[in-house]
Fold this protein.
Amino acid sequence: MVVAKDHKAVFLSAKWRTDDGGREEMTLAVSWSGTLSTEEGESVSSVICIPLASQKRSSTGRPDWTCIVVGFSSGYVRFYTESGVLLLAQLLNEDPVLRLKCRTYEIPRHPGVTEQLSGPGILYPAALVTIDGFSLFQSLRACRNQVARAAAAGSEVVHPPPLAYKKWGLQDMDTIVDHSSVGIMTLCVFDQMKNASILGGFHASVKGSPPAMSQYITVGGGPYTGFYYAIEGSSQPLLSHVALAVASKLTSALFSAASGWLGWKKQSEEEPTQKQKPKVEPATPLAVRFGLPDSRRHGEFICLSPCNTLAGVTDDFGRVTLLDVGRGIAIRMWKGYRDAQLGWVQVSEGRGERESSPSAPLPRRHAQFLVIYAPRRGILEVWGTQQGPRVGAFTVGKHCRLLYAGYRLMGVNSVTSQGWLLHTQQVCLFDPATGVLRTVTVPFHLALSDKKSERAKDMHLLKRLTTLLKNILESEAQSVLLDIKHPAVKKQALESLLANKNAPVSCLTNITRVLLASLKGQDPEAVDEGLFQLCSSQLKLLQLYTDIQQLHSTGEATTDTHTEPVSTTNTTGCTARLVCVCFSPVGSFLFWGCLTGQSPLQKVCNTLQKTGISPQQLLSLLLSVWLHREKEVLKKTEAVRHLHTLLTALSSMKGAVEESWDMQCVSPWWQQVRSACVQSHSSAAALLAAIVAHRAAKANITILAETKFQSEWEAVSLELEQWAVCVRQLEDVLSLQTLLCVPPPQGTPGSATPHCSVKALLEGGRGGIADSVAKWVFRQDLAPERLKDMLQRRGEAESTEQPSQPEQGKGEKSQEDAAFNRLLVSVCQRFPDSLSPDLLFAHCCWEYVVQWNKDPEVGLRTVPAHRPSHLTHSHLYTQTSIHIYIHTHIYTHRHAHTYTSTVGKAPKDRLCRRDVGMGDCAMTSFLGSCVQLLQILMEADSGVEEVTPPELCVEEVWGGAEGPASLAELALEQKGVHYPLVQHHYLLASLLHTAMTFSLRVKPLSLFDSKGKNAFFRELSSIQLMPSGDMDPGLVSLRQEFLLRVLTGWVTTQRVAVEGPGSGSGDKTWPSLCLDLGLLLQVNPDILRRHLVCELYNQGLDPRAEQVEDKDVLGSQLLVLTGQRLSYSLLHTQTQTRPAMELLARLPPTLCTWLKAMDPSELGCPSVPLSQTSRLVSRLIEILPENHGQYSLALHLLEAVEDLIPPSD
């Protein structure tokens, strides 16, 4: 929606939001607001919004975006996007734009209908401009894409060439204020001859085929309505002499604009924009064919119907005239509608009798309704056309606005619209006082003009009954229901009546009884069977409701509110009816009073038995209310005793327990109880129900055994064994559910508490229990050490009967932790095999990996280090590591390796998120995790052959679990790994981790030969051709250079850590890691050690410098570093002291020349205390042998440093 005034405008877009009540509603929010005028003194005169069809297959038939077309008083027409970006602007005429209209493609309802052209129409005071819709659609799409590319590249937008259009000069009318483009039409032969005779006389010639003409209707004054016909092909849309005059200019403009669109044109070639007013093309004269003359009447607005056959016109006399567009005559007029606003509603006939006829199906009919809004009267009316009555009237505000577009999507044709279901053009009424936008919907049956149409009369009666339901009047509702003739409508009316919550039961019973009596009095063959069964079943339910309500009232005067039975379609009696209702409300109504002791149990059961409802359905209702109201049941201890009484009473009903039941078989009756208990998520209520049913079944079996065998021996049956297993399973589930319901601590990731049941655990497979506990461990954010400690106490708790008491003085927190630990230990004792420590740790490890995979960054920040290293069994330890690496880490590891190898450096955060799916910090942490995982895999693989694979067991009562294979089973199915290949991947992960940690420029593949490159990311169990022997010296040199840069980067972080605590990395394991990598990469470790010592001295970290074996080479390097320090102190400081100048004069010429040749800029930390430099020179003299060539130079340096140190130092 667009609202504009003068030179400002506001664009509103539809958005969905949820109100306070939880309902979703559509609102219009401001998407753009600002000034549209660019020329001085111009203002907005007309606006339309045109939705453009999407070209994507996934959204076929839906709008892609909406173009806002704005006409100005200067004659300009500009096209904008939804965000206010200008796409096109063209001056079509120098007069103000009066009205903008649009036509879009309509799917023809009948074969042979001429396909209509689409496109907008612009009306000027004396001209009409029509633009071809297809070319405009392509131009707007190209301009929108070009504007988006230009905005992304930061370049200027190239203006596209002018649009191709038709411009007609409308003649023979004094004033024109509105128009409507009817489309292309072809006259019949009679009309062609009639027109030829009128225009050409008796001797006029007639062509063989009637020409195709575009019809335009205008309203205004002199005449009141004008009809124009432009013969297609008679003249060019763009005049030929104008096209020849500007041919060269237009060609250059086209080529320059096209080059800018395609990226050929450079900024240096762009021409400066010309501010001259563009040339306006002249219009092609078009004379009015005929009109409706009325000298005093002036038209104001015209609205064309969707089928292009009728049009509504308003005038200054307060009349609304209905025009027949084809014949050009007025066929109807309404008066008393000053300042009226018009719209059309076209409705299609529903899929009914016309399509289900035994002969060929008849085509669907369409009806048109004219919507008139009279603002001065504050009324909205809907009229049937052409001569139909008023079918609806609504009282609305006097300042509303009727919104009717009259077109659909632009960019649709006969090819692209195949298979589409276009939505009906809607008429909306906007109320500015409340901000509410209402739509007008009209049912098709209101267009039926036959007064004797039974269906139309029935629909009217149904509508009247709907109105009566607001204030129930039994006699009127009964008469209306009996007057309805059609069975389907009568059934719909009865269902709506029964669904009304305000109707009393007595009223519903009387109406249903009268209706059933009327059906019985008719011919049986003429009565609809479905309606008869519905009445019969509903009457039984109503009578049952009345009887049960009376029984509840006799027990205590606390009755529930009226609960209406929900109506359904074809049913077979009251028994089938209960299957379709919601169990919980009906079960509460029937049995809750009995469970609480407020109603007589035996009378309720007798009443239910008389209705003919099967005991199985009553049992389902009883169990549903028991299981759904768990919290209330647990508060009422006497409910268990009442439940036993009800189960015994129901099982004694006829048809409950079969008399021929064999005790060595499973009873279907009690199996129904077990099925309901094992499927329920209410573990406590299900366990109570199972215990009660177990006792009732045992008593039933005992009585049956005494009857059959006449023996004192206790009967042993399969049914009792089934109950023992069921009760044990429910006890285990209750213990597990209690653990899962423990709330997580604040600040943990957490999620919704899962609800488990016996059926869910059995269907979850053998690993379902461990998986549920692993998810609980993740929500509780338990550290691995704490979980391991709690599991170790499990054996101690099993050996001791008395639980350990918490120490006094520890406070409430220690008591909560103790209860927490006891709860976990008790669950593990109930599942000794499913929750063994190794299996639980394996599932916890996998759960944390899954959570990391959902959000790598959040996972790395919040998830503790649950690793496979906590597993004790070597086989499970190794195979779990392989399973995790293969199914999660290897893909991200490969992406990180490929991207780093392509870029050649540590990527930025934005590029990491785009290509790898995580930020740079998360990627660094992930690579560190890969290094640790591969290191764990190498350590575990060494001990696999010494032990046998574990046997995966499960508890006896849970042996029937069927479902997906557990994590342990999948892990043990993994093949063993090839140790050299794992070590090869460990080396690559370590190099990537170091490169990301210290932001080094390196391509990891350049550090490996061809064999090493081909071995990456193969199956870890495969045997690959690995690098062996001595490496190429050039490759070793590259590896050495990389490791030296790693050591330099680490020393830099150590200096940052010393200068600012907490601002740098304090990890001291990198030097040893570099030495280990050097051994794997065949780099001399002495070179790495010497470089590390020199870098530590270079950064001023003298106390951390370590001694190396190769003293000669180290001494020479430290001698140069000492000379750089002394050169900085004597020659390159900002304030040179007098003692320093005197010392410089006393130095030997050789030493002075050597110091001047030093470059202190290579030092990482030049301002080092002289005391540290003195200790460095002393160590240097100790390292250098006396026969060394630079030993004397070192002695001179020692003397110079000692002379330079002040006495206070």
Remarks:
- DSSP finds 38 helices and 27 strands in the chain.
